[in-house]
From TrEMBL:
InterPro entries: DUF3391, HD/PDEase_dom, HD_GYP_dom. This is HD-GYP domain-containing protein. Coiled coil: none annotated. Residues 139-335 form the HD-GYP domain.
Amino acid sequence: MLKKIDASQLKTGMYIHDLSCDWMTHPFVRNRFLLTSEEEIRKIVNAGIHDVVIDCSKGLDVDHAPTLEETRQHTEEALVEIATRPVIVTRTTLAEELKRAAVIRQQATGLVRTVMQDARLGKAIELDSVSPMVENITESILRNPGALMGMLRIKNKDDYTFLHSVSVCTLLVAFCRSRGMDAETTYQAGLGGLLHDTGKALVPDHVLNKPGPLTDEEFAIIKKHPRDGYDILLKSPEIGPIPLDITLHHHERRDGSGYPEKQGEGAISELAQMAAIVDVYDAITADRCYHKGMSAAEALRKIYEWSKFHFHPTYAQEFMRCVGIYPVGTMVMLESGRLGVVIEPHETNLLAPKVNVFFNTKRNVYIRPETVDLSRPVGFGGGDKIVRPESPQKWNVDPMQFISVG
């Protein structure tokens, strides 16, 4: 039986099933192992991990601890409540924005690559070349956030570092917009998102792209990148305080377990806290050569759970509203057995988006694509519901092929 317990309850002889944190947080080579020493317990606590999942069939039990299923049910109930608050309506259709978004994705990725190369050579970042790209991304988000955000969900592993920066910029701009922030603040946050990982230009490639878990020494090198990025940005005299703050503090956590300054609640700025959520969300949903990305829906569940200690709970919930429980581009299995791809969130219920269906799994055949509005009843273009997100790799499908009908 799997149970979720507080880290303070850990004892040697327990079997860790899940450390319940993002993969870049914990200092262990693996996620599942038998606790054999007090030193291992100290490492878990010192890493800022507050609760873990134990397997009682493989190690010691904890009486009266909730089962993993019980805690998941509690999270599910909270998410359903979050999913029924209104969202911002888009200005253009997804189909209209997709072509523009494709160009922006390509250009922005190339720009970040150039920024990283310049930083590695010791050059100052030319903000005159970066600013127009942030403006293009912002304008795309204003027209239809689902287009660019959906496209950025699929990343080439070789270009991950660059695409991640574009994704963080895009998501942070959308997050600021959904929270009603003014245009200048949104732009500065977007600039910070695009440049937040500039310090990784100084991380050796064999560490940055290592096809496996990092050693303690390698993790210490990685943890230098916020400060290195901050120092690089300081070479550009026109850089503002918001991009500097986001770059230096996007790995800080409310419980003081983050880095580089171990800032706690009250010390971390609003935008740095927002950037932290965005950064983790994009990282844990991406496929890496050593880390299988989780679905957007599962990632949001994790962020909700981690918000008890690491993230601002209100910001975490508002981010869920911003991206949607099933973001645009998510492939889903419907109760009818049809596969579809989410194309538009519902205004008041994120569990009932519009979906383009294209495959019947019961008959194992492709069907003529059609749009199903899951908020509508049978006979009115609806009458179905999402059972679970699906992996495009499992079905060998590019969901973006079916993002528009006709």
